[in-house]
Design goal:
The protein is α+β, with helices and mostly antiparallel strands. It contains two helices and two strands. 6% of the residues are buried.
């Protein structure tokens, strides 16, 4: 679950602090059948297709939106 509240900055480096829904990349298929994540940062693909599989591309888009939101 990527969101502004799950990232901390310590000594100039960013750390993700919420790993509750994380899984190894080599594991196939979704960890959960429901869509998770902060809806403000959810990828456009997941917003349009609520029953689709959450992929790495969606996480990258999540990250982009968090950076843009923080910069504003």
């Amino acid at each position: 679950d990527l969101s502004v509240g799950n990232i901390i900055i310590y000594q100039g480096k960013g750390f993700l602090i919420n790993w509750d829904l994380a899984k190894l990349v080599i594991i196939q298929g979704p960890q959960q059948m429901i869509c998770t994540g902060t809806w403000q940062f959810r990828s456009a693909h997941l917003v349009k297709n609520t029953h689709t599989v959450h992929g790495i591309e969606d996480d990258l888009e999540f990250s982009l939106y968090i950076v843009l939101w923080t910069a504003l």
